[in-house]
Amino acid sequence: MNSFDDASVRLWNENWHLLAHRSELAEARDFVRFDILGREVVLYHDGASVIAFDNRCPHRGARIFDGDAGRERFLCRYHGWSYAKGRVFVADKASLTHCSLDQISLKTLQIAWVGDYAFVSPAPARSLEEQMSGLVPMLETMSYGITARWDFNRYLYESDWRIALENALEPYHVSAIHPETLATLKLTPGENQYFGYNSIWSSPLGDERMVRRMRSLSRLFDLPHQFEGYESLYLFPFTMISSTFGFSQSIQHFLPSSIAERTHFTSRLFAGRLRASTKPELVAPFISSSAAMNRAVFEEDHSICQRVPADTWSMDPPRFWSASEEKLIHFRRSYREAVSTA
Asked: From CA 301, how far away is CA 315, in angstroms rounded?
C-alpha cells in the first residue's frame, strides 16, 4: 500500500463514524450497508439490539447482505448459517461437532449512540465524546429532529476521497459549478466554527424571498434544532451533514476505496420531524424537491472532482486559497495531525 492508503486505513480504524439513524434500524431485520476499503460494513437490528459487523459469514466468508438497505433475515445463502438476537445458528450442527462451536461469532465493530445517531468504529483511539470535541449536545438534538429516510443515493465517485471531501467543504466553487442548483439559495459568506477536527459552516440565505418562504414552512415542522439558513457539519474524517432550515438532513459519506482515485459516496436524505397537526402529504412535494436538488448537486460535484488528479492533493495548504476555502485548510491540518500521531 502507498502512504495514502495506509492513512485511509488508519483513519477508518481509529475513528468513530456516523453511519446510521435509529429510524433506519427501528425494526428487527432492518439493515444498512456501506462499502469501505474493499470491505463492507452492515448495521443490523438482530431482534434484540443493533449491531455493526463485517458483511461476511463467519463460516467461509460469503457475503450476507447485497442491497443498500432494507429488511431481511440474516441468512448465509452458501450453507444456511443464520444469526439472530446475538447468536449464530449453524446448519447441520451435528456435522461440526469436531469444531469449537462456542467460538463462532461475527466480526463486529464497536457501536455507540449520540441521541438517534449510530456511530461505528473498528478500534477507536479515543472516546466518541473526545472525538466530537464539544459537538455531542448539538448532534444529539439534531438527531431527534428527523424521522425517516426519504432518499438513498450511492455510487462510486471517480475521484480520490480527499479531493471529493474538500470539494464538499468549500463553497468557493458553488457559483461556477452549481449555478442552477445550490447557487440559487444565494448563500452568504457565513461563519465557520471549529470543534477539534470537526467543523460547522453556517450561511444565512441571501434571497429574502426564499427566506420568507422558508419561514412560512417552519410552522409545519417540530424541530428541536434549526438554523435559519444553510448549515453544513463536517465530522472528521469522512462524514458531512447538511441542511437548509432544518426541514431535512442530508448525511453524506466519502468513504475510501481500495481502488485508486475512487470514493464510495453515499447520501441519504432524512425528512424533518413534523408537528402533530401536519399532514405528511403537505410537505412531501417539498422533501421530494430537496432530494432531487441534492442528487443534481452531487452529480455536478462528481463531474468536477473527476477533473482533479489524485497527485494534486497534499497535506500542505494550497499556495493560493480563497477565504471561503478556510475549512479546507483546517481539514488538511487535522488530517496531518491525525495520521502523524504515534
From this structure: 21
* One-letter amino acid of 227: F
Final residue before a domain boundary, out of 79, 108, 129: 129
In-domain check, residue 52: yes
pLDDT in tens, 40-67: 999 999 999 999 999 999 999 999 999 9
Q: How far apart are the first and last CA of the chain?
A: 19
What pTM, to 2 d.p., does this model score? 0.95
The sign one gets for the Cα dihedral 139, 199, 160, 341 is negative
The span from the CA of 56 to the CA of 61, in Å, is: 5
Query: Both 166 and 308 in a single domain?
Result: yes
> Are 174 and 167 within 8 A, CB to CB?
no
**What is the C-alpha to C-alpha distance for residues 204 and 208, in angstroms, rounded to an integer?**
10
Q: How far apart are CA 45 and CA 212, in angstroms?
A: 42
Could you say which of 103, 129, 155 is where a domain stops? 129
Task: Report the candidate in 298, 25, 309 with the shortest Cα–Cα distance to residue 163.
Answer: 309
Question: Is the domain of 22 the same as that of 124?
Answer: yes
Contacts of 114 (CB under 8 A, 6+ apart): 18, 128, 132, 136, 139, 140, 143
Per the rule left: phi > 0, alpha: psi between -120 and 50, beta: everything else, 322 is beta
Is residue 4, in this structure, part of any structural domain at all?
Answer: no
Interval 197-237: pLDDT, tens: 999 999 999 999 999 999 999 999 999 999 999 999 999 99
